[in-house]
Amino acid sequence: MRAERLLQIVLLLQSRGQATAGALARDLDVSTRTIQRDMEALSGAGIPVYSTRGGGGGWSLVDSYRNRLTSLTTTEALSLVVGQTGGVMADLGLDDPGEGPILKLLAAVAPTARDRAEHARQRVHVDRSPWGEAASSDPALPSLQQAVFADHLVRLRYGTSRSTVVLAPLGLVCKGTNWYLVALRGTDYRTYRVARVHDVTVTDQAFERPADFDLASHWRETSVRYASAFPRTVVRLRLRGDAVQRAWWVQARERTIGEPDPDGWVDVELVLEDEDHALGVIRLLGGDDVIVVSPDGLRDQAVRIARAFAEANAIHAGRRAPP
């Protein structure tokens, strides 16, 4: 969101020539303090913005500056067109603008850069919605969004706790189809899954956002620490038939799927959370099209489950299970 706002500021200054921090804050629905921080960020990125004091003053771009994006690389063009997230817009209660903003931006840039971006747009499309799953509902999201944009404290319950906590909401992150709240609880940075947030009250009390906090950087660092703390179970399988296709549906941290041998068997390696998760995956993949190569303990559990399944169904059918 901040990147979009920075671009909007540059385009507004280009069209108006000059604008006060208050006017920009009203146009972009943020605080003047946020505009001041954005101007510092633009200046630090090499965008030549400057302020003029006095009654007729405000923020401006130097006269010689033209934002033509002439140095847009192929990678940057690709990132421009694959970053569209209509589902995210809907979650935030906003109309999906579709390709309108992208097309407007492409029309404004230099021809060479426009050609690169259009080339990428015609060849890559990103759909982040999962197959066969209903969209998640996060009732707390609108209130949290309001508090995040207003820099106001919130009071809420989390998970199964009956007590409430007061947080300074710093930002919202959408990872996959799940929303997370990044907030300060006292002086500690915390992350909360929005689906587990209940009874949100947006207070009238404003808070001072940490000047050195950057949401994207914080999330990257937190994600690395979180992932490194996860238990890991490496599962090696041999699959054939429909089980190979189902292996692509498995939620795995890593997966390696080889080529079929002459008999149709495929070597597959999955990195999963733990053996309970792995057992669930084996059930999903199916029966005689799955061979557990390792770990040994997982294979033994799979054998016990298969025998118990066969015995239960044989008894129900009135005949003995195979040995």
TrEMBL record:
Keywords: DNA-binding, Transcription, Transcription regulation. Pfam families: HTH_11 (PF08279), WCX (PF25583), WYL (PF13280). SMART domains: HTH_DEOR. GO terms for molecular function: DNA binding; DNA-binding transcription factor activity. InterPro entries: CBASS_pafABC_assoc_protein, DeoR_HTH, HTH_11, PafC-like, WCX_dom, WH-like_DNA-bd_sf, WH_DNA-bd_sf, WYL_dom. Residues 2-60 form the HTH deoR-type domain. This is DNA-binding transcriptional regulator YafY. It comes from Actinopolymorpha pittospori.
